[in-house]
Specification:
Strand content: 5-15%
Largest sheet: 6 strands, mixed
Structural class: mainly alpha
Length: 550
DNA sequence: GTAGGGTTAG
């Protein structure tokens, strides 16, 4: 055997270059490029495409473009791939004008060209342009559809993403694949669209898709985030090929539903199965501890991360620890932890302590922490809202006004509370004080009736949750139209007795809404499931699953 | 040798 037999050839380089991309090693890429030049293969069509692709994927766009420009074949037919990889590179680097220009200039296009550009546009927030292009396609394949489903979801348009998916399978008769399913299930999870999720689950079963790790994980996450923790657990059992993400979403699911025991058990079982926890798995188990007030357990996991698995805690892990101490009322320990941590505490860390200051009404520390917050993000409305909430919570209205004025001066705006409720498979959204819904009148009168009945049974509006310094009655009004209450009222008038109401809120639910929900669950004999930004509240018969610890 | 995917704060 001569050495010639193992010399790389024009057929070897594409594979080598692909591996280089996988490794992400720019220096190695340069070396391989050198080898190609030495062998005089730089003008070979196969090698050239791979080389341009490598540079494009490694975000060395100028090199990719240079090689592309120097390609003698680029204006011939059959050069589609060369154009496609360079278009893809432009999209990846966010140079969309160039991508569009190339797309328009190419001698011929294939489906990949369209899909690449659409993907580039939608990932960079150019949704309208992407939709326009998509709709103009003469021929679409499953990749085109998947790109749209995922892209719409990335831009927060989950309902549109779902519509797109059902249009694909029902109207166009295109068969989904794993990637489509994962994308659409993730949209359901983000928005809490249970009915749609169940329909997709049936589609998966009916079309005999294999429940591999990715599809299983997406399904589990969907059920968990739509409030169906038992279904999540069932799919978890059915998913045979579990990887660390599958376990993590399950642990996370138990955590947000307040089942600490299950979360911890799940974590231990994962380790016994031989799967090493990664930083997300630790984040999940720490969150479980924090939600349940298990301070010592949480700290043990935190230490184990470094000692047993050599995982350096990230800012997120530290934030959970601050939260862990903070919720349990150990504010001094939380502060000490921040002062000793290896990373420079960021906004999130101080924010976690700030929430704890609020919950435990420690105004002195809150003042100190709010300064830290405003140093880090002078325009961040959260700090102002936090601070004015603190003062409001203890009734110091002059300070509330002062903070709010200063907030206005700095041009910071409060995040809008937004809730939605799924009725007959369709999502209805509400903002605080919403008057835009077609059933506004009925919603408000139901709300009033609900509040009055609850009042007769001991509900007292917790006005400390309102920000403004206004008269007591007005405060009740401001509370009375929080978005989750409107969603609740709409849910009650639009569904029959016994139907479970599912509400999703983009912020934390306030104490007053929480209290009213408890009463309503008892008075109307309804199960109410509220998902707020961090966890689930299952209201039944006047009791909440969070046991008021949240 | 080109196009699309699953877990992460409060």
């Amino acid at each position: 055997m001569s050495r010639l037999d193992v010399r790389p050839s024009r057929l070897t380089f594409p594979f080598v270059l692909k591996s280089v991309v996988g490794l992400g090693d720019k220096w190695l890429g340069g070396m391989v490029h050198g080898g190609i030049l030495k062998m005089g293969l730089e003008f070979d069509g196969f090698v050239r495409v791979s080389l341009v692709d490598m540079y494009a994927k490694m975000e060395l766009l100028s090199l990719a473009l240079q090689l592309f420009d120097e390609s003698p074949e680029r204006n011939k037919l059959d050069s589609v791939l060369l154009w496609n990889v360079v278009i893809n590179g432009c999209c990846k680097s966010g140079i969309l004008e160039k991508a569009v220009e190339l797309f328009e200039a190419m001698p011929e296009r294939n489906l990949g060209s369209w899909n690449s550009l659409i993907n580039g546009l939608i990932r960079n927030g150019k949704v309208d342009k992407a939709v326009e292009l998509f709709e103009g396609m003469v021929e679409k394949n499953v990749v085109s559809w998947t790109t749209m489903v995922h892209g719409l979801s990335l831009n927060g348009m989950h309902e549109k993403a779902l519509e797109m998916f059902f249009n694909m399978i029902e109207e166009e008769g295109v068969r989904a694949n794993d990637l489509t399913l994962v994308s659409v299930l993730s949209a359901c999870a983000k928005t809490g669209a249970l009915e749609a999720g169940i329909k997709i689950h049936k589609y998966i079963l009916g079309n005999k898709f294999r429940l591999n790790a990715a599809v299983g994980t997406a399904l589990i996450d969907m059920y968990a985030k739509c409030g169906q923790i038992q279904s999540a657990s069932q799919v978890f059992r059915d998913t045979k090929e579990k990887d660390v993400r599958t376990w993590s979403v399950m642990i996370w699911g138990w955590a947000i539903h307040g089942s600490v025991e299950q979360a911890l058990q799940c974590f231990e079982k994962m380790k016994l199965t031989g799967i090493e926890p990664d930083e997300v798995a630790f984040l999940a188990v720490l969150t479980a501890c924090s939600h349940a007030g298990l301070v010592d357990e949480g700290l043990k996991f935190f230490d184990s991360m470094k000692l047993d698995y050599s995982i350096e805690p990230t800012m997120k892990h530290c934030a959970v620890i601050v939260d862990l101490y903070g919720r349990a009322g150990q504010l001094d320990e939380a502060l000490r932890f921040i002062q000793c941590m290896a990373l420079t505490p960021d906004f999130v860390i101080w924010g976690a302590l700030f929430s704890a200051c609020r919950a435990h009404k420690n105004i002195e520390m809150a003042k100190y922490v709010s300064e830290k917050l405003l140093q880090l993000e002078p325009k961040h409305s959260g700090s102002y809202v936090f601070m004015s909430n603190i003062y409001a919570g203890v009734g110091i209205w002059e300070e509330v006004e002062r903070v709010r004025t200063s907030m206005k001066d700095k041009g910071a705006a409060k995040d809008t509370g937004l809730s939605h409720v799924e009725v007959h498979g369709k999502l209805h959204s509400f903002v605080a004080g919403d008057q835009a819904h077609m059933h506004t009148k009925e919603i408000y009168s139901k709300l009033e009736e609900m509040t009055n009945r609850a009042r007769e049974h001991g509900y007292i509006p917790e006005t400390e949750w309102v920000l403004h310094n206004i008269e007591e009655e007005e405060k009740e009004d401001a509370l009375g139209t929080h978005s989750e209450k409107l969603a609740l009222a709409f849910g009650l008038i639009s569904t029959g007795p016994g139907v479970v109401l599912r509400i999703v809120k983009n912020l934390r639910t306030c104490g007053d809404c929480h209290s009213l929900m408890k009463h309503v669950s008892k008075l109307s004999q309804r199960e109410i499931v509220v998902r707020d930004i961090k966890r689930f509240h299952h209201f039944k018969d006047g009791i909440c699953s969070c046991q008021d610890y949240w």
